Protein backbone atom coordinates (compact mmCIF):
# COMPACT_ATOMS: atom_id res chain seq x y z
CA UNK A 1 0.00 0.00 0.00
CA UNK A 2 1.50 3.28 -1.13
CA UNK A 3 1.48 5.86 1.65
CA UNK A 4 -0.26 9.08 0.59
CA UNK A 5 0.61 11.99 2.82
CA UNK A 6 1.19 15.65 2.07
CA UNK A 7 1.23 17.48 -1.25
CA UNK A 8 1.57 15.60 -4.57
CA UNK A 9 0.88 12.30 -2.82
CA UNK A 10 -1.28 10.98 -5.66
CA UNK A 11 1.33 11.81 -8.30
CA UNK A 12 4.13 9.49 -9.32
CA UNK A 13 7.42 10.02 -7.46
CA UNK A 14 8.96 13.42 -8.18
CA UNK A 15 12.28 13.48 -9.97
CA UNK A 16 15.20 15.45 -8.51
CA UNK A 17 14.60 18.21 -11.05
CA UNK A 18 10.95 18.44 -10.00
CA UNK A 19 11.89 18.46 -6.31
CA UNK A 20 14.36 21.27 -7.04
CA UNK A 21 11.58 23.26 -8.73
CA UNK A 22 9.33 22.88 -5.70
CA UNK A 23 12.17 23.96 -3.41
CA UNK A 24 12.87 26.95 -5.67
CA UNK A 25 9.21 27.90 -5.37
CA UNK A 26 9.35 27.66 -1.56
CA UNK A 27 12.54 29.74 -1.38
CA UNK A 28 11.06 32.33 -3.73
CA UNK A 29 8.18 32.68 -1.28
CA UNK A 30 10.56 33.08 1.63
CA UNK A 31 9.63 29.82 3.34
CA UNK A 32 12.18 27.94 5.44
CA UNK A 33 12.80 24.45 4.13
CA UNK A 34 13.59 21.45 6.31
CA UNK A 35 14.00 17.72 5.81
CA UNK A 36 12.40 15.10 8.06
CA UNK A 37 12.43 11.33 8.17
CA UNK A 38 10.61 8.55 9.99
CA UNK A 39 9.91 4.85 9.79
CA UNK A 40 6.54 5.03 11.53
CA UNK A 41 4.06 5.61 8.72
CA UNK A 42 0.95 6.05 10.91
CA UNK A 43 -1.00 9.13 9.76
CA UNK A 44 -1.25 10.41 13.33
CA UNK A 45 2.52 10.34 13.69
CA UNK A 46 3.19 14.05 13.22
CA UNK A 47 6.57 14.01 14.94
CA UNK A 48 9.10 13.03 12.32
CA UNK A 49 12.80 13.38 13.06
CA UNK A 50 14.53 16.38 11.50
CA UNK A 51 17.54 15.58 9.35
CA UNK A 52 20.41 17.95 10.14
CA UNK A 53 19.71 21.59 10.77
CA UNK A 54 16.75 23.56 9.47
CA UNK A 55 17.96 25.05 6.20
CA UNK A 56 17.70 28.80 6.70
CA UNK A 57 19.17 31.64 4.63
CA UNK A 58 19.54 29.71 1.42
CA UNK A 59 19.06 31.20 -2.01
CA UNK A 60 19.27 28.20 -4.24
CA UNK A 61 17.76 24.71 -4.29
CA UNK A 62 21.06 22.95 -5.03
CA UNK A 63 22.16 23.08 -1.37
CA UNK A 64 18.88 21.60 -0.14
CA UNK A 65 18.82 18.94 -2.81
CA UNK A 66 22.31 17.88 -1.72
CA UNK A 67 20.94 17.50 1.84
CA UNK A 68 17.96 15.49 0.56
CA UNK A 69 20.33 13.12 -1.21
CA UNK A 70 22.54 12.88 1.87
CA UNK A 71 19.44 11.97 3.90
CA UNK A 72 18.46 9.37 1.29
CA UNK A 73 21.89 7.81 1.57
CA UNK A 74 21.67 7.72 5.36
CA UNK A 75 18.09 6.42 5.52
CA UNK A 76 17.44 4.62 2.24
CA UNK A 77 14.53 2.61 3.69
CA UNK A 78 12.77 5.39 5.59
CA UNK A 79 10.09 7.86 4.65
CA UNK A 80 11.65 11.27 3.97
CA UNK A 81 9.74 14.47 3.42
CA UNK A 82 10.61 18.04 2.53
CA UNK A 83 8.76 20.75 4.46
CA UNK A 84 8.45 24.45 3.73
CA UNK A 85 7.53 26.56 6.74
CA UNK A 86 6.00 29.99 6.35
CA UNK A 87 7.03 32.18 9.30
CA UNK A 88 5.00 35.24 8.28
CA UNK A 89 2.69 36.63 10.94
CA UNK A 90 -0.78 35.10 11.02
CA UNK A 91 0.41 32.10 9.01
CA UNK A 92 3.23 30.54 11.04
CA UNK A 93 2.65 27.06 9.73
CA UNK A 94 3.72 24.53 7.14
CA UNK A 95 2.80 25.63 3.63
CA UNK A 96 4.15 22.72 1.68
CA UNK A 97 5.19 19.21 2.62
CA UNK A 98 5.86 16.31 0.31
CA UNK A 99 7.39 12.85 0.49
CA UNK A 100 10.64 12.41 -1.43
CA UNK A 101 11.67 8.93 -0.34
CA UNK A 102 9.81 5.81 0.76
CA UNK A 103 10.71 2.21 1.61
CA UNK A 104 10.76 -0.24 -1.28
CA UNK A 105 8.01 -2.34 0.27
CA UNK A 106 5.13 -0.77 2.19
CA UNK A 107 3.01 -3.44 3.91
CA UNK A 108 0.21 -1.02 4.81
CA UNK A 109 -2.20 -0.91 7.76
CA UNK A 110 -4.40 -3.28 9.66
CA UNK A 111 -7.87 -2.26 10.80
CA UNK A 112 -8.49 -3.39 14.38
CA UNK A 113 -12.06 -3.61 15.57
CA UNK A 114 -12.69 -3.54 19.33
CA UNK A 115 -16.14 -4.43 20.60
CA UNK A 116 -17.51 -2.20 23.31
CA UNK A 117 -20.66 -2.34 25.45
CA UNK A 118 -23.95 -2.57 23.56
CA UNK A 119 -22.51 -3.88 20.29
CA UNK A 120 -20.50 -0.67 19.70
CA UNK A 121 -17.34 -1.03 17.65
CA UNK A 122 -14.20 1.08 17.98
CA UNK A 123 -11.78 1.18 15.06
CA UNK A 124 -8.02 1.63 15.09
CA UNK A 125 -5.46 1.42 12.33
CA UNK A 126 -2.09 -0.07 12.99
CA UNK A 127 0.85 -0.19 10.61
CA UNK A 128 2.08 -3.72 10.06
CA UNK A 129 5.60 -2.42 10.01
CA UNK A 130 5.38 -0.91 13.49
CA UNK A 131 5.36 -4.38 15.10
CA UNK A 132 9.12 -4.30 14.87
CA UNK A 133 11.23 -1.86 16.85
CA UNK A 134 12.29 1.49 15.43
CA UNK A 135 15.06 1.29 12.84
CA UNK A 136 14.22 -2.34 11.92
CA UNK A 137 10.87 -1.71 10.32
CA UNK A 138 11.68 -1.71 6.64
CA UNK B 1 21.44 15.97 -8.96
CA UNK B 2 21.62 19.42 -10.44
CA UNK B 3 18.51 21.48 -10.96
CA UNK B 4 17.55 22.43 -14.51
CA UNK B 5 19.33 25.53 -15.67
CA UNK B 6 17.53 28.45 -17.17
CA UNK B 7 19.90 30.51 -19.22
CA UNK B 8 19.39 34.22 -19.27
CA UNK B 9 20.62 34.45 -22.84
CA UNK B 10 17.21 34.45 -24.41
CA UNK B 11 18.17 35.14 -28.00
CA UNK B 12 19.96 31.88 -28.56
CA UNK B 13 17.80 29.49 -30.47
CA UNK B 14 18.73 26.03 -29.27
CA UNK B 15 17.22 24.34 -32.31
CA UNK B 16 19.08 26.46 -34.81
CA UNK B 17 20.39 24.19 -37.54
CA UNK B 18 24.16 23.89 -37.48
CA UNK B 19 25.88 26.22 -39.86
CA UNK B 20 23.26 28.93 -39.55
CA UNK B 21 24.95 32.11 -38.34
CA UNK B 22 23.96 33.15 -34.84
CA UNK B 23 23.70 36.76 -33.94
CA UNK B 24 26.52 37.47 -31.51
CA UNK B 25 25.42 41.06 -31.22
CA UNK B 26 21.89 40.08 -30.25
CA UNK B 27 23.13 37.52 -27.73
CA UNK B 28 25.43 40.13 -26.22
CA UNK B 29 22.64 42.69 -26.05
CA UNK B 30 20.13 40.28 -24.56
CA UNK B 31 22.51 39.08 -21.88
CA UNK B 32 22.87 42.71 -20.62
CA UNK B 33 26.49 41.92 -19.83
CA UNK B 34 27.50 45.10 -21.60
CA UNK B 35 25.76 47.19 -18.96
CA UNK B 36 27.69 45.56 -16.15
CA UNK B 37 30.99 45.94 -17.97
CA UNK B 38 30.21 49.57 -18.77
CA UNK B 39 29.37 50.33 -15.16
CA UNK B 40 32.58 48.55 -14.22
CA UNK B 41 34.49 50.88 -16.54
CA UNK B 42 32.68 53.92 -15.22
CA UNK B 43 32.67 53.26 -11.50
CA UNK B 44 36.01 51.59 -11.06
CA UNK B 45 39.02 53.78 -11.62
CA UNK B 46 42.22 52.26 -12.93
CA UNK B 47 42.56 48.46 -12.65
CA UNK B 48 43.17 48.18 -16.39
CA UNK B 49 44.53 44.59 -16.31
CA UNK B 50 41.61 43.46 -14.16
CA UNK B 51 39.04 44.98 -16.48
CA UNK B 52 40.72 43.40 -19.47
CA UNK B 53 40.62 39.98 -17.84
CA UNK B 54 36.96 40.39 -16.96
CA UNK B 55 36.14 41.37 -20.53
CA UNK B 56 38.06 38.30 -21.73
CA UNK B 57 36.17 36.05 -19.37
CA UNK B 58 32.81 37.56 -20.32
CA UNK B 59 33.63 37.12 -24.01
CA UNK B 60 34.66 33.51 -23.46
CA UNK B 61 31.44 32.74 -21.61
CA UNK B 62 29.29 34.40 -24.24
CA UNK B 63 31.04 32.58 -27.08
CA UNK B 64 30.70 29.35 -25.11
CA UNK B 65 26.93 29.89 -24.95
CA UNK B 66 26.81 30.34 -28.71
CA UNK B 67 28.98 27.26 -29.24
CA UNK B 68 26.61 25.28 -27.07
CA UNK B 69 23.74 26.40 -29.29
CA UNK B 70 25.66 24.91 -32.21
CA UNK B 71 26.22 21.71 -30.32
CA UNK B 72 29.91 22.45 -29.85
CA UNK B 73 30.04 21.61 -26.20
CA UNK B 74 33.35 22.03 -24.43
CA UNK B 75 32.00 21.10 -21.01
CA UNK B 76 31.22 23.56 -18.25
CA UNK B 77 34.10 26.03 -18.10
CA UNK B 78 36.07 26.19 -14.88
CA UNK B 79 35.20 29.53 -13.36
CA UNK B 80 36.87 29.46 -9.96
CA UNK B 81 39.14 32.45 -9.58
CA UNK B 82 41.76 33.94 -7.39
CA UNK B 83 42.00 37.69 -6.83
CA UNK B 84 45.32 38.81 -5.45
CA UNK B 85 46.33 42.30 -4.48
CA UNK B 86 47.01 44.66 -1.64
CA UNK B 87 44.16 45.73 0.65
CA UNK B 88 41.73 48.25 -0.73
CA UNK B 89 42.41 47.51 -4.39
CA UNK B 90 38.79 46.60 -5.09
CA UNK B 91 38.79 42.81 -4.86
CA UNK B 92 35.41 42.55 -3.13
CA UNK B 93 33.83 45.14 -5.40
CA UNK B 94 35.03 43.36 -8.52
CA UNK B 95 33.85 40.03 -7.07
CA UNK B 96 30.37 41.47 -6.72
CA UNK B 97 30.43 42.61 -10.34
CA UNK B 98 31.78 39.23 -11.39
CA UNK B 99 28.81 37.56 -9.69
CA UNK B 100 26.52 39.88 -11.63
CA UNK B 101 28.24 39.09 -14.95
CA UNK B 102 28.13 35.34 -14.33
CA UNK B 103 24.48 35.61 -13.40
CA UNK B 104 23.62 37.54 -16.55
CA UNK B 105 25.37 34.95 -18.67
CA UNK B 106 23.55 32.17 -16.87
CA UNK B 107 26.59 30.54 -15.28
CA UNK B 108 25.27 30.99 -11.76
CA UNK B 109 21.56 30.80 -11.07
CA UNK B 110 21.07 33.51 -8.44
CA UNK B 111 24.09 35.79 -8.67
CA UNK B 112 24.50 36.63 -5.00
CA UNK B 113 27.86 36.97 -3.30
CA UNK B 114 28.62 35.28 0.00
CA UNK B 115 31.76 36.77 1.51
CA UNK B 116 33.46 34.66 4.19
CA UNK B 117 36.77 34.38 6.01
CA UNK B 118 38.49 31.54 7.83
CA UNK B 119 36.25 31.95 10.89
CA UNK B 120 33.13 31.14 8.87
CA UNK B 121 34.59 27.94 7.44
CA UNK B 122 36.81 26.41 10.09
CA UNK B 123 35.45 25.02 13.34
CA UNK B 124 36.96 25.05 16.80
CA UNK B 125 36.92 21.38 17.65
CA UNK B 126 36.99 18.01 15.89
CA UNK B 127 33.87 17.47 13.80
CA UNK B 128 32.90 21.12 13.82
CA UNK B 129 34.54 22.12 10.55
CA UNK B 130 32.71 19.93 8.06
CA UNK B 131 29.16 21.02 8.96
CA UNK B 132 30.29 24.63 9.19
CA UNK B 133 31.90 24.60 5.76
CA UNK B 134 28.95 22.76 4.25
CA UNK B 135 26.59 25.33 5.77
CA UNK B 136 28.47 28.16 4.07
CA UNK B 137 28.65 26.26 0.78
CA UNK B 138 24.91 25.67 0.88
CA UNK B 139 24.33 29.37 1.40
CA UNK B 140 26.56 30.18 -1.56
CA UNK B 141 24.87 27.71 -3.92
CA UNK B 142 23.60 29.45 -7.01
CA UNK B 143 25.98 32.32 -6.45
CA UNK B 144 29.58 33.19 -5.77
CA UNK B 145 31.53 32.26 -2.65
CA UNK B 146 34.16 34.89 -1.90
CA UNK B 147 36.83 33.68 0.54
CA UNK B 148 38.75 36.68 1.79
CA UNK B 149 42.29 36.14 3.08
CA UNK B 150 42.06 32.55 1.95
CA UNK B 151 45.66 31.76 2.94
CA UNK B 152 44.59 31.63 6.59
CA UNK B 153 42.80 28.38 5.74
CA UNK B 154 46.12 26.65 5.54
CA UNK B 155 48.45 26.76 8.52
CA UNK B 156 51.55 24.74 7.74
CA UNK B 157 52.97 25.23 11.23
CA UNK B 158 50.13 23.20 12.76
CA UNK B 159 49.48 19.91 11.04
CA UNK B 160 46.36 19.29 13.11
CA UNK B 161 44.82 22.54 11.99
CA UNK B 162 41.20 22.09 10.88
CA UNK B 163 41.73 24.41 7.92
CA UNK B 164 42.91 21.47 5.83
CA UNK B 165 39.55 19.79 6.33
CA UNK B 166 37.74 22.91 5.08
CA UNK B 167 40.00 23.00 2.01
CA UNK B 168 39.23 19.36 1.24
CA UNK B 169 35.47 19.95 1.40
CA UNK B 170 35.85 23.05 -0.74
CA UNK B 171 37.81 21.09 -3.32
CA UNK B 172 35.21 18.39 -3.46
CA UNK B 173 32.38 20.85 -4.06
CA UNK B 174 34.42 22.95 -6.49
CA UNK B 175 34.97 19.86 -8.58
CA UNK B 176 31.62 18.09 -8.31
CA UNK B 177 29.17 20.96 -8.18
CA UNK B 178 30.82 23.27 -10.65
CA UNK B 179 27.50 24.36 -12.08
CA UNK B 180 26.14 25.25 -8.65
CA UNK B 181 28.69 27.75 -7.41
CA UNK B 182 31.81 29.69 -8.26
CA UNK B 183 34.53 30.15 -5.65
CA UNK B 184 36.76 33.22 -5.58
CA UNK B 185 39.85 33.21 -3.35
CA UNK B 186 41.23 36.59 -2.39
CA UNK B 187 44.22 37.89 -0.50
CA UNK B 188 47.69 39.40 -0.61
CA UNK B 189 49.69 38.37 -3.62
CA UNK B 190 52.68 36.79 -1.92
CA UNK B 191 50.81 34.88 0.73
CA UNK B 192 48.30 33.62 -1.83
CA UNK B 193 51.17 32.36 -3.97
CA UNK B 194 52.53 30.39 -1.01
CA UNK B 195 49.03 29.16 -0.27
CA UNK B 196 48.50 27.85 -3.79
CA UNK B 197 51.99 26.45 -3.85
CA UNK B 198 51.33 24.33 -0.78
CA UNK B 199 47.89 23.26 -2.06
CA UNK B 200 48.51 22.14 -5.63
CA UNK B 201 45.08 20.52 -5.84
CA UNK B 202 43.50 23.88 -5.19
CA UNK B 203 45.75 25.75 -7.56
CA UNK B 204 44.97 23.46 -10.47
CA UNK B 205 41.25 23.97 -9.97
CA UNK B 206 41.45 27.74 -10.03
CA UNK B 207 41.37 28.73 -13.67
CA UNK B 208 41.71 32.48 -13.47
CA UNK B 209 44.36 34.21 -11.42
CA UNK B 210 43.78 37.95 -11.50
CA UNK B 211 46.25 40.34 -9.94
CA UNK B 212 45.03 43.72 -8.69
CA UNK B 213 47.68 46.42 -9.04
CA UNK B 214 48.09 49.25 -6.54
CA UNK B 215 46.54 52.55 -7.52
CA UNK B 216 48.65 55.46 -8.69
CA UNK B 217 48.31 58.84 -6.96
CA UNK B 218 46.18 60.24 -9.83
CA UNK B 219 43.88 57.25 -9.68
CA UNK B 220 43.47 57.67 -5.94
CA UNK B 221 42.46 61.31 -6.43
CA UNK B 222 39.97 60.29 -9.10
CA UNK B 223 38.61 57.66 -6.69
CA UNK B 224 38.30 60.27 -3.95
CA UNK B 225 36.38 62.55 -6.26
CA UNK B 226 34.06 59.76 -7.32
CA UNK B 227 33.41 58.86 -3.67
CA UNK B 228 32.71 62.48 -2.78
CA UNK B 229 30.41 62.85 -5.73
CA UNK B 230 28.41 59.86 -4.53
CA UNK B 231 28.21 61.39 -1.05
CA UNK B 232 27.27 64.81 -2.48
CA UNK B 233 30.38 66.60 -1.32
CA UNK B 234 32.95 68.46 -3.32
CA UNK B 235 36.50 69.66 -2.74
CA UNK B 236 37.52 73.27 -2.93
CA UNK B 237 40.55 73.83 -5.25
CA UNK B 238 42.81 74.21 -2.21
CA UNK B 239 41.42 71.05 -0.72
CA UNK B 240 42.14 69.18 -3.93
CA UNK B 241 45.79 70.21 -3.72
CA UNK B 242 45.84 69.25 -0.05
CA UNK B 243 44.37 65.85 -0.89
CA UNK B 244 47.08 65.27 -3.48
CA UNK B 245 49.69 66.07 -0.87
CA UNK B 246 47.90 63.90 1.68
CA UNK B 247 47.92 60.92 -0.67
CA UNK B 248 51.62 61.36 -1.41
CA UNK B 249 52.41 61.29 2.30
CA UNK B 250 49.96 58.57 3.25
CA UNK B 251 51.28 56.19 0.60
CA UNK B 252 54.70 56.09 2.18
CA UNK B 253 53.30 55.28 5.61
CA UNK B 254 52.63 51.78 6.91
CA UNK B 255 49.17 50.17 6.69
CA UNK B 256 48.26 52.04 3.55
CA UNK B 257 45.13 50.33 2.16
CA UNK B 258 44.63 52.10 -1.17
CA UNK B 259 41.01 53.09 -1.76
CA UNK B 260 39.98 52.06 1.75
CA UNK B 261 42.46 54.50 3.30
CA UNK B 262 41.09 57.21 1.03
CA UNK B 263 37.56 56.43 2.11
CA UNK B 264 38.58 56.64 5.77
CA UNK B 265 40.44 59.90 5.17
CA UNK B 266 37.38 61.36 3.52
CA UNK B 267 35.15 60.21 6.36
CA UNK B 268 37.44 61.97 8.83
CA UNK B 269 37.47 65.09 6.64
CA UNK B 270 33.68 65.04 6.73
CA UNK B 271 33.81 64.90 10.52
CA UNK B 272 36.13 67.90 10.63
CA UNK B 273 34.03 69.81 8.15
CA UNK B 274 30.94 69.19 10.28
CA UNK B 275 32.58 70.34 13.48
CA UNK B 276 34.11 73.37 11.68
CA UNK B 277 30.63 74.42 10.54
CA UNK B 278 29.29 73.70 14.00
CA UNK B 279 31.94 75.90 15.63
CA UNK B 280 30.80 79.02 13.86
CA UNK B 281 27.16 78.76 14.78
CA UNK B 282 25.14 81.87 14.09
CA UNK B 283 26.58 82.40 10.64
CA UNK B 284 23.89 81.38 8.16
CA UNK B 285 24.97 78.36 6.10
CA UNK B 286 24.33 78.09 2.41
CA UNK B 287 24.34 74.97 0.27
CA UNK B 288 27.89 75.56 -0.95
CA UNK B 289 29.24 75.68 2.60
CA UNK B 290 27.45 72.45 3.45
CA UNK B 291 28.85 70.51 0.56
CA UNK B 292 32.38 71.92 0.34
CA UNK B 293 35.35 70.34 2.05
CA UNK B 294 38.07 72.93 2.62
CA UNK B 295 41.82 72.44 2.62
CA UNK B 296 41.89 72.85 6.41
CA UNK B 297 39.63 69.81 6.86
CA UNK B 298 42.23 67.67 5.14
CA UNK B 299 45.36 69.37 6.46
CA UNK B 300 44.26 68.75 10.05
CA UNK B 301 45.02 65.07 9.51
CA UNK B 302 47.79 63.52 11.59
CA UNK B 303 49.51 62.50 8.35
CA UNK B 304 50.58 66.14 8.10
CA UNK B 305 51.41 66.33 11.80
CA UNK B 306 54.19 63.73 11.55
CA UNK B 307 56.34 66.21 9.63
CA UNK B 308 59.98 65.57 10.43
CA UNK B 309 59.09 62.86 12.92
CA UNK B 310 58.57 60.28 10.20
Describe this structure in words.
Chain A is an alpha+beta fold. Chain A has a domain at 16-104: Ribulose 1,5 Bisphosphate Carboxylase/Oxygenase (2-Layer Sandwich), CATH 3.30.190. Chain A has helices spanning 16-28, 61-74, and strands at 32-38, 49-50, 79-86, 93-101, 109-115, 121-127. Chain A has a four-stranded antiparallel beta sheet. The longest helix of chain A has 14 residues, at 61-74. Chain A is globular and about 60 Å long. In chain B, 54% of the residues lie in helices and 9% in strands. Chain B has 15 helices and seven strands. Chain B has helices at 24-31, 33-43, 48-69, 91-104, 118-121, 129-140, 163-176, 189-198, 200-205, 217-230, 237-252, 258-279, 287-291, 295-299, 302-305; strands at residues 81-85, 113-116, 144-148, 182-187, 208-212, 234-235, 292-293. Chain B has a five-stranded parallel beta sheet, sandwiched between helices. Chain B has a two-stranded parallel ribbon with strand order 6-7. Mean pLDDT of chain B is 84; it is low at 1-16. The A-B interface holds A 16-17, 20-21, 24, 52-53, 55, 57-67, 69 and B 1-4, 109-110, 112, 131, 135, 137-139, 141-143, 177, 180-181.
What is the typical, i.e. mean, pLDDT of chain B? 84
Write down how many β-strands of chain B occur, each being a DSSP E stretch of 2 or more residues.
7
* Gap from first CA to last CA of chain B: 61 Å
Shape of chain B: globular
Q: Would you summarize the structure shown here?
A:
Chain A is of the alpha+beta class and 138 residues long. Chain A has helices at residues 16-28, 61-74, and strands spanning 32-38, 49-50, 79-86, 93-101, 109-115, 121-127.
SSE inventory with pairings:
The complex is a heterodimer of chains A (138) and B (310).
Chain A: H1 16-28, E1 32-38, E2 49-50, H2 61-74, E3 79-86, E4 93-101, E5 109-115, E6 121-127
Antiparallel strand pairs in A: 1-2, 1-3, 3-4, 5-6
Chain B: H1 24-31, H2 33-43, H3 48-69, E1 81-85, H4 91-104, E2 113-116, H5 118-121, H6 129-140, E3 144-148, H7 163-176, E4 182-187, H8 189-198, H9 200-205, E5 208-212, H10 217-230, E6 234-235, H11 237-252, H12 258-279, H13 287-291, E7 292-293, H14 295-299, H15 302-305
Parallel strand pairs in B: 1-4, 1-5, 2-3, 3-4, 6-7
